[in-house]
Design goal:
This protein has 708 residues and is of the alpha+beta class. The protein has five domains: 149 residues, Four Helix Bundle (Hemerythrin (Met), subunit A) (Up-down Bundle); 160 residues, Alpha-Beta Plaits; 57 residues; 178 residues, Heat Shock Protein 90, CATH 3.30.565; 133 residues, SH3 type barrels (Roll), CATH 2.30.30. Helix 1 runs antiparallel to helix 2.
Length: 708
């Protein structure tokens, strides 16, 4: 059981550490923002307290000195400067490493000892070393039984509980810079909260002090975070206010039962039982009677009504935070695989019902098709995650790398809510790292160079995402130098990729940087220059079934565009026939289908080209490419595919129609099969290969001989 709680602690700690990194990067830009300082302190404070409780004593002890430093910053005794930010970021990385490596006890390693020494040096003269609280350990009996005591449950491990909170700030609280409304906002961030302000203490205008606080608040909060999280909100203002926190119990202990107004007033101590009984005898609305008889004040009644309404809403909705669950990604993968099998079986049933001409069976097949379609869409939506979680990781990359390179670079992000399949998001990390590193090293100029060109000394990298049909377009733009096309051509001639007198278009020239070991950098650095970065980018994006494209303007910057499919599990395709075989062409790239006469498209030198809408486009004879036996018909069709404005034609015997299918991997033996990205099982049980449009179209553009 204790291992279960440890896993829960790890998950919570990783989330807190991720939030801490974001907070620190914001704090670096706004070092006097007290709310951010408080948020950073609370994250470390929570990790420290929970770590010792669940056997991670070492990270807890390590966090103690860092907590002292942040406490001094919060109290205004020490400014938040680069030293504090750097130290805290390094400490954040070290705490994560300790938790990942399950370092629960023992002495600190050299890196940790150095950081602790730096904490204390940065804190000298500012901090009061607060005694580190001892974590509550499970009882010996509980340890013998392999169980943790209930009090040791991590935040979020229990159910939703409701708390009644009364906040009465000191009259002079504004003078310390504290804003009570911000405290209420922090409370609301813990989950679901309702609050009522009490203005009864506000004096008349002639005696009102504009710098005094006369308002108090009654709040009701339902959360799974625990009472310690609530106390942490007020940890720095306890001596500046009157605060009471009363636990009301489980939010859904009495499902279907909403507390009556009289019950709430009695619990709050606003009325005595005899006075309540007298009011109830009048058979009028209780609130009206209590106000008319002056049994309770208007503010007390409003607070009780707000509490009643809040508890009712929590019971009805079961609190938003309780409606989401964590599920292992492996289970989601299994679910999608099973749905894929259902899609295949449903297609077979539809085919069989058609062959038997059984109207009853056909009706069942149609209903099943609708249900399977809904199930498939729901299963796929569960796998979709916002890409913002990946984007946020690069803020730290840009910060650290720009500092190492002596550059000033800001990272802007757009479209963080854009959703992608979780598998795709996981595989995007490495390509994006390579692109951003190249932008920082080769794209953005040094501050003095930018100033000489009339640019701001600080550069900008923009990372954006947006939907485009069945794909997501991710753009990484910088405002740097742009690509030096002449240098790229010279390097290509030097390596024999281009002939001495050969000329390439701008787009074809830019595509050369994706070749293995291709780099125009004069010096190899720790960041880039070895020619492996963009090659990795193209290889990874191709493996995802996507594409990489470049836009660049000399002196203005470069944009790398990644076009990525929404999911790797299901594809909308065009089913075609060649001889006795069937293939699937991704529908997202299909532009049109045209007929091809037997000799049409053969030019004098034998190259395979056809005229299409005033343009000559290369065509690929799939029968020849995949060695499909049999006689070719006199009349064939060309499926015209468009990839970012570049067209390629696929010659097929017949077009069968649209087909939604589940992608199956080919396995290790066929992993390197040219021109094939996967396979699918059709409704009749036969296998159809899925065309890798990216690679086939690139090969067609390079091919100079006759291919059909």
């Amino acid at each position: 059981m204790i291992d279960k709680f440890k896993d829960a602690f790890r998950e919570e700690a990783y989330e807190l550490l991720s939030q801490l990194e974001d907070i620190l990067l914001e704090l670096e830009a706004s070092p006097k923002d007290l709310e951010l300082i408080n948020a950073a302190f609370r994250a470390i404070h929570t990790i420290k307290g929970s770590a010792g409780m669940f056997g991670f004593e070492k990270p807890g002890r390590f966090a103690h000195d860092l907590e002292n430093l942040l406490d001094a910053c919060r109290a205004g005794k020490r400014e938040v400067d680069k030293t504090v930010i750097d130290l805290t970021l390094r400490a954040r990385d070290k705490i994560r490493a300790m938790i990942e490596q399950d370092e629960s006890e023992g002495s600190f390693d050299e890196e940790a000892q150095l950081l602790i020494h730096e904490f204390r040096a940065a804190c000298t003269g500012y901090c009061e070393d607060k005694a580190q609280p001892q974590a509550t350990a499970p009882s010996a009996a509980a340890q013998r039984d392999g169980q943790a005591s209930p009090s040791a449950a991590p935040a979020g491990a229990g159910g939703i509980r409701s708390y009644r909170i009364r906040l009465v700030p000191a009259r002079d609280i504004f003078l310390s810079g504290t804003r009570p409304l911000k405290l209420l906002e922090e409370l609301a961030a813990l989950s679901v909260m309702s609050a009522v302000a009490n203005f009864s203490a506000v004096p008349s205008l002639d005696t009102l002090d504009p710098e005094a606080c006369y308002t108090s608040w009654d709040a009701i909060l339902s959360t799974d975070k625990g009472i310690d999280a609530i106390r942490d909100v007020f940890i720095f203002v306890e001596d500046q206010c009157e605060l009471s926190i009363d636990e009301l119990g489980e939010a859904d202990d009495e499902e279907g039962h909403t507390k009556k107004l009289g019950e709430i007033l009695l619990e709050r101590g606003a009325i005595q039982k005899p006075a309540l009984d007298d009011a109830l005898k009048s058979q009028r609305k209780l609130g009206e009677v209590l106000i008319d008889t002056h049994a309770v004040s208007s503010s007390e009644l409003q607070a009780a009504l707000a509490e009643q309404d809040h508890l009712k809403r929590v019971q009805e909705k079961h609190v938003d935070t309780g409606s989401s669950v964590r599920v292992a990604s492996e289970k989601l993968d299994q679910l999608v695989d099973l749905v894929g099998e259902m899609v295949t079986l449903q297609a077979r049933l539809s085919r069989t019902s058609g062959e038997l001409a059984d109207t009853g069976l056909s009706s069942i097949a149609e209903q099943l098709e609708r249900l399977v379609s809904q199930l498939r869409d729901n299963a796929m939506s569960i796998r979709m995650l916002p890409i913002g979680s990946t984007f946020s990781k690069f803020r730290r990359v840009v910060r650290d790398l720009s500092r190492d390179l002596g550059k000033q670079v800001d990272l802007l992000t757009e479209g963080e809510d854009t959703e992608l399949d979780k598998t795709v998001i996981e595989r995007l990390n490495d390509p994006l790292v390579h692109i951003i590193r190249n932008s920082l090293d080769h794209g953005i100029e040094q501050p003095h160079e930018r100033k000489a060109k009339g640019k701001p000394e600080g550069g900008t990298i923009c990372l954006s995402a947006s939907h485009s049909g069945a794909t997501v377009e991710i753009r990484v733009s910088d405002d740097g130098n742009g690509l030096n096309l002449e240098a790229i051509r010279n390097k290509a001639r030097e390596r024999g990729i281009m002939g001495p007198n050969e000329e390439l278009s701008e787009q074809d020239t830019m595509q050369l940087i994706f070749r293995p070991s291709f780099s125009t950098a004069q010096n190899v650095s720790a960041v880039s220059g070895r020619g492996v970065g963009m090659d990795v980018v193209k290889r990874e994006i191709d493996a995802l079934g996507g594409g990489v494209y470049l836009e660049s303007k000399p002196g203005q910057g470069t944009t790398v565009v990644l076009s990525i499919p929404l999911t790797l599990a299901i594809i909308e395709g065009l089913l075609v026939r060649i001889g006795g075989e069937r293939f699937v062409i991704p529908l997202s790239c299909v532009e049109a289908c045209v007929e091809l006469e037997e000799q049409e498209g053969l030019s004098e030198d034998g190259s395979a080209l056809i005229h299409y809408r005033g343009d000559l486009i290369p065509i690929v004879d799939l029968r020849r490419s995949f060695a499909v036996p049999g006689e070719q018909p006199a009349l064939r069709q060309v499926v015209v595919a468009n990839d970012q404005g570049t067209r390629t034609g696929y010659v097929v015997d017949a077009v069968i129609g649209d087909y939604q299918t589940v992608i199956k991997p080919l396995g290790r033996l066929f992993k390197e099969a040219e021109g094939i990205s996967g396979a699918t099982i059709l409704g009749d049980g036969t296998v159809a290969l899925i065309i890798d449009h990216k690679r086939v179209s690139e090969a067609a553009r390079r091919q100079k001989g006759r291919v059909h």
